Predict the structure of Globin domain-containing protein.
Amino acid sequence: MAFNTTPLIPTFKRNAPRVSRHRPRLLCMTQAPVRFPNSTHVDRVQRTWQLVEPIKPQAGAIFYEFLFEKYPQVRSMFKSDMQEQQKRLIEMVDQGVKLLDQPDQLEPTLRALGKRHVRYRTQVEHYPAVKDTLMRALETALGEKTMDADARTAWSAVYDYWAGIMIDAMMECEEPGEGQNRV
Ligand code: HEM
Protein backbone atom coordinates (compact mmCIF):
# COMPACT_ATOMS: atom_id res chain seq x y z
CA MET A 1 0.00 0.00 0.00
CA ALA A 2 1.54 3.35 -0.94
CA PHE A 3 0.69 6.64 0.70
CA ASN A 4 1.03 10.00 -0.90
CA THR A 5 2.69 11.70 2.06
CA THR A 6 5.60 14.02 2.58
CA PRO A 7 8.56 11.92 3.68
CA LEU A 8 8.20 12.19 7.42
CA ILE A 9 10.34 9.41 8.79
CA PRO A 10 13.91 8.50 8.00
CA THR A 11 14.62 6.75 4.72
CA PHE A 12 15.59 3.48 6.33
CA LYS A 13 12.10 3.20 7.79
CA ARG A 14 10.20 4.53 4.80
CA ASN A 15 12.00 2.16 2.50
CA ALA A 16 11.86 -0.81 4.79
CA PRO A 17 10.18 -3.70 3.05
CA ARG A 18 6.72 -4.84 4.07
CA VAL A 19 6.68 -7.20 6.96
CA SER A 20 6.35 -10.70 5.65
CA ARG A 21 5.92 -14.02 7.40
CA HIS A 22 9.39 -15.00 6.24
CA ARG A 23 11.26 -11.90 7.33
CA PRO A 24 14.32 -13.08 9.25
CA ARG A 25 15.18 -11.43 12.56
CA LEU A 26 18.49 -10.38 11.00
CA LEU A 27 16.67 -7.60 9.15
CA CYS A 28 16.12 -5.81 12.47
CA MET A 29 19.84 -5.41 12.77
CA THR A 30 20.05 -3.71 9.37
CA GLN A 31 17.86 -0.86 10.67
CA ALA A 32 19.59 2.27 11.85
CA PRO A 33 19.55 2.50 15.64
CA VAL A 34 16.48 4.11 17.14
CA ARG A 35 17.46 7.58 18.30
CA PHE A 36 16.24 8.96 21.61
CA PRO A 37 14.99 12.55 21.22
CA ASN A 38 17.24 15.19 22.78
CA SER A 39 16.28 16.95 26.02
CA THR A 40 15.07 20.11 24.23
CA HIS A 41 12.70 18.00 22.15
CA VAL A 42 11.49 16.06 25.19
CA ASP A 43 10.85 19.26 27.10
CA ARG A 44 8.98 20.89 24.21
CA VAL A 45 6.80 17.84 23.62
CA GLN A 46 5.96 17.53 27.32
CA ARG A 47 5.05 21.21 27.54
CA THR A 48 2.86 21.19 24.42
CA TRP A 49 1.18 17.95 25.51
CA GLN A 50 0.09 19.59 28.78
CA LEU A 51 -2.03 21.92 26.64
CA VAL A 52 -3.84 18.90 25.16
CA GLU A 53 -4.80 17.56 28.63
CA PRO A 54 -8.07 19.53 28.88
CA ILE A 55 -9.11 18.62 25.33
CA LYS A 56 -8.06 14.97 25.16
CA PRO A 57 -11.43 13.61 23.90
CA GLN A 58 -11.56 16.21 21.12
CA ALA A 59 -7.94 15.47 20.18
CA GLY A 60 -8.70 11.75 19.83
CA ALA A 61 -11.75 12.46 17.70
CA ILE A 62 -9.86 14.89 15.44
CA PHE A 63 -7.05 12.37 15.00
CA TYR A 64 -9.29 9.60 13.65
CA GLU A 65 -11.39 12.00 11.61
CA PHE A 66 -8.22 13.20 9.87
CA LEU A 67 -6.76 9.69 9.55
CA PHE A 68 -9.81 8.22 7.83
CA GLU A 69 -10.39 11.29 5.68
CA LYS A 70 -6.89 11.28 4.17
CA TYR A 71 -6.15 7.54 4.39
CA PRO A 72 -9.51 5.81 3.91
CA GLN A 73 -7.67 2.58 3.04
CA VAL A 74 -6.85 1.99 6.75
CA ARG A 75 -10.46 2.42 7.97
CA SER A 76 -11.33 -1.27 7.73
CA MET A 77 -8.40 -2.20 10.00
CA PHE A 78 -10.21 -0.58 12.93
CA LYS A 79 -12.82 -3.03 14.22
CA SER A 80 -13.36 -1.82 17.79
CA ASP A 81 -15.64 0.89 19.10
CA MET A 82 -14.02 4.11 17.87
CA GLN A 83 -14.68 6.08 21.05
CA GLU A 84 -12.77 3.44 23.00
CA GLN A 85 -10.02 3.47 20.40
CA GLN A 86 -9.74 7.27 20.62
CA LYS A 87 -9.31 6.98 24.38
CA ARG A 88 -6.73 4.19 24.09
CA LEU A 89 -4.66 6.12 21.56
CA ILE A 90 -4.68 9.31 23.59
CA GLU A 91 -3.82 7.44 26.80
CA MET A 92 -0.92 5.77 25.01
CA VAL A 93 0.35 9.09 23.68
CA ASP A 94 -0.03 10.47 27.20
CA GLN A 95 2.08 7.62 28.58
CA GLY A 96 4.54 7.92 25.70
CA VAL A 97 5.07 11.60 26.49
CA LYS A 98 5.23 11.28 30.28
CA LEU A 99 7.52 8.24 30.23
CA LEU A 100 10.10 10.02 28.08
CA ASP A 101 11.69 10.68 31.47
CA GLN A 102 11.74 6.92 32.15
CA PRO A 103 12.84 5.16 28.96
CA ASP A 104 13.38 1.90 30.89
CA GLN A 105 9.63 1.75 31.39
CA LEU A 106 8.64 3.31 28.09
CA GLU A 107 10.58 1.04 25.77
CA PRO A 108 9.08 -2.31 26.88
CA THR A 109 5.63 -0.68 26.68
CA LEU A 110 6.27 0.46 23.11
CA ARG A 111 7.76 -2.90 22.13
CA ALA A 112 4.66 -4.70 23.40
CA LEU A 113 2.46 -2.19 21.55
CA GLY A 114 4.46 -2.73 18.34
CA LYS A 115 4.02 -6.48 18.63
CA ARG A 116 0.26 -6.13 19.15
CA HIS A 117 0.17 -4.04 15.97
CA VAL A 118 1.24 -7.08 13.96
CA ARG A 119 -2.16 -8.55 14.87
CA TYR A 120 -3.84 -5.36 13.66
CA ARG A 121 -2.19 -5.95 10.25
CA THR A 122 -0.12 -2.78 10.54
CA GLN A 123 2.59 -2.36 7.93
CA VAL A 124 5.79 -0.31 8.21
CA GLU A 125 4.52 2.06 5.54
CA HIS A 126 1.48 2.97 7.65
CA TYR A 127 3.67 4.74 10.21
CA PRO A 128 4.23 7.93 8.15
CA ALA A 129 0.47 8.24 7.69
CA VAL A 130 -0.11 8.10 11.43
CA LYS A 131 2.70 10.60 11.95
CA ASP A 132 1.27 12.99 9.38
CA THR A 133 -2.14 12.66 11.05
CA LEU A 134 -0.80 13.18 14.57
CA MET A 135 1.04 16.33 13.49
CA ARG A 136 -2.03 17.75 11.76
CA ALA A 137 -4.25 16.89 14.72
CA LEU A 138 -1.84 18.65 17.12
CA GLU A 139 -1.65 21.69 14.85
CA THR A 140 -5.43 21.86 14.67
CA ALA A 141 -5.92 21.33 18.41
CA LEU A 142 -3.19 23.69 19.59
CA GLY A 143 -2.87 26.19 16.76
CA GLU A 144 0.14 27.07 14.62
CA LYS A 145 1.53 29.48 17.19
CA THR A 146 2.01 26.68 19.73
CA MET A 147 2.84 24.07 17.11
CA ASP A 148 5.55 26.23 15.54
CA ALA A 149 8.56 24.89 13.63
CA ASP A 150 10.46 23.96 16.82
CA ALA A 151 7.46 22.17 18.30
CA ARG A 152 6.94 20.27 15.05
CA THR A 153 10.60 19.22 14.98
CA ALA A 154 10.35 18.07 18.60
CA TRP A 155 7.18 16.02 17.96
CA SER A 156 8.73 14.59 14.84
CA ALA A 157 11.77 13.37 16.80
CA VAL A 158 9.57 11.85 19.51
CA TYR A 159 7.24 10.13 17.04
CA ASP A 160 10.21 8.69 15.11
CA TYR A 161 11.57 7.31 18.37
CA TRP A 162 8.23 5.67 19.30
CA ALA A 163 7.69 4.33 15.79
CA GLY A 164 11.27 3.07 15.55
CA ILE A 165 10.82 0.97 18.69
CA MET A 166 7.41 -0.31 17.61
CA ILE A 167 8.70 -1.24 14.14
CA ASP A 168 11.75 -2.93 15.57
CA ALA A 169 9.54 -5.03 17.85
CA MET A 170 7.17 -5.73 14.96
CA MET A 171 10.10 -7.09 12.93
CA GLU A 172 11.08 -9.32 15.84
CA CYS A 173 7.66 -10.94 15.58
CA GLU A 174 8.80 -12.32 12.26
CA GLU A 175 10.05 -15.51 13.84
CA PRO A 176 8.74 -18.85 12.59
CA GLY A 177 5.36 -19.54 14.13
CA GLU A 178 4.62 -15.94 15.09
CA GLY A 179 2.34 -13.37 13.50
CA GLN A 180 0.14 -15.69 11.45
CA ASN A 181 -2.59 -13.18 10.97
CA ARG A 182 -1.06 -10.92 8.35
CA VAL A 183 -0.97 -9.91 4.72
C1 HEM B 1 3.24 5.64 17.44
C2 HEM B 1 2.30 5.05 16.72
C3 HEM B 1 1.09 4.35 17.28
C4 HEM B 1 0.56 4.38 18.53
C5 HEM B 1 1.05 5.14 19.76
C6 HEM B 1 -0.60 3.50 18.51
C7 HEM B 1 -1.41 3.25 19.58
C8 HEM B 1 -2.43 2.31 19.59
C9 HEM B 1 -3.15 1.88 20.76
C10 HEM B 1 -2.92 2.39 22.18
C11 HEM B 1 -4.06 0.96 20.38
C12 HEM B 1 -5.08 0.24 21.29
C13 HEM B 1 -4.88 -1.25 21.33
C14 HEM B 1 -3.60 -1.69 22.02
O1 HEM B 1 -3.14 -1.07 22.98
O2 HEM B 1 -3.05 -2.70 21.55
C15 HEM B 1 -3.94 0.82 18.94
C16 HEM B 1 -4.69 -0.02 18.17
C17 HEM B 1 -4.65 -0.06 16.80
N1 HEM B 1 -3.78 0.65 16.01
FE1 HEM B 1 -2.27 1.82 16.61
N2 HEM B 1 -0.77 3.02 17.24
C18 HEM B 1 0.25 3.51 16.46
C19 HEM B 1 0.46 3.26 15.14
C20 HEM B 1 -0.45 2.64 14.32
C21 HEM B 1 -0.33 2.52 12.89
C22 HEM B 1 0.84 3.04 12.06
C23 HEM B 1 -1.43 1.86 12.45
C24 HEM B 1 -1.78 1.55 11.02
C25 HEM B 1 -2.87 1.96 10.45
C26 HEM B 1 -2.24 1.54 13.60
C27 HEM B 1 -3.41 0.84 13.59
C28 HEM B 1 -4.06 0.35 14.71
C29 HEM B 1 -5.18 -0.59 14.65
C30 HEM B 1 -5.81 -1.17 13.40
C31 HEM B 1 -5.55 -0.85 15.97
C32 HEM B 1 -6.65 -1.80 16.46
C33 HEM B 1 -7.96 -1.09 16.48
C34 HEM B 1 -9.10 -2.02 16.86
O3 HEM B 1 -8.95 -2.84 17.78
O4 HEM B 1 -10.13 -1.86 16.23
N3 HEM B 1 -1.61 2.03 14.72
N4 HEM B 1 -2.94 1.65 18.50
In short: The mean pLDDT is 84. The pocket of protoporphyrin IX containing FE is lined by residues 74, 77-80, 85, 88-89, 92-93, 113, 116-117, 120, 122, 126-127, 130, 162-163, 166 (CB under 6 Å). The first helix runs from residue 11 to 14.
